[in-house]
Amino acid sequence: MAVVLRGGITGGFLHQRRDTSSVITRRISSVKTAGGGINPTVAVERATWLPGLDPPPYLNGKLAGDYGFDPLGLGEDPESLKWYVQAELVHSRFAMLGVAGILFTDLLRTTGIRNLPVWYEAGAVKFDFASTKTLIVVQFLLMGFAETKRYVDYVSPGSQAKEGSFFFGLEASLEGLEPGYPGGPLLNPLGLAKDIKNAHDWKLKEIKNGRLAMMAMLGFFVQASVTHTGPIDNLVEHLSNPWHKTIIQTLFTSTS
């Protein structure tokens, strides 16, 4: 009889379940049988975003960070699923950079180290070294080039690591591990995931932190809209009076 561990061993209870269609077999040496011996193979239920929910068949757990979450069925088509995986990865990386940049500059601003605008007003700042139109054109050219190369590598994996695919031999700095993970000394200077086939843990850490960063960015947007201040100001205000300066009081005050 298969032993099913729900969400890990919680409270020391082991549950029996007849339907083992969504159960993955793993080796666990620390689980003892009733006779006192070691049972090397137990069935462990796959972790899902909602405990007890059977994930859709096209989300089989092979993707990094796959917890069966697709309530709208957007990934039913295999080609669409590949594109959504890349889209989430790129948005995660942009969000992580955005969160780090907002918190760092906001910390410099609130401590008085640098005279910087609050993050949501930074785009209106005029720079002496170039006009706003020039900066927009340069950004479009650089971002357009990078996104075009990324799309070409998505369509033809590994093509952007071939000789002659970049200017000045920059393709030598890329390894073309797989779409979304160009690697090489340029984008993987520490060599954390040179063997992309065995880099699942690194992928999982990245996508988890990326999803957290996207939620943080959403929080920053709401904060800016409601309080008209930066996240560090909000944090300092909350810490000054934790029981009365919370998100609940702030939202009720802003709507009243």
UniProtKB/TrEMBL annotation:
One of its GO terms (biological process) is photosynthesis, light harvesting. Pfam families: Chloroa_b-bind (PF00504). Chlorophyll b binds at residues 93, 174. Keywords: Chlorophyll, Chloroplast, Chromophore, Membrane, Photosynthesis, Photosystem I, Photosystem II, Plastid, Thylakoid, Transit peptide, Transmembrane, Transmembrane helix. One of its GO terms (cellular component) is chloroplast thylakoid membrane. InterPro entries: Chloro_AB-bd_pln (IPR001344), Chloroa_b-bind (IPR022796). Chlorophyll a binds at residues 88, 91, 205-206, 209, 211, 223, 238. One of its GO terms (molecular function) is chlorophyll binding. The keyword Transmembrane applies. Belongs to the light-harvesting chlorophyll a/b-binding (LHC) protein family. The light-harvesting complex (LHC) functions as a light receptor, it captures and delivers excitation energy to photosystems with which it is closely associated. This is Chlorophyll a-b binding protein, chloroplastic. The lineage of its organism: Eukaryota, Viridiplantae, Streptophyta, Embryophyta, Tracheophyta.
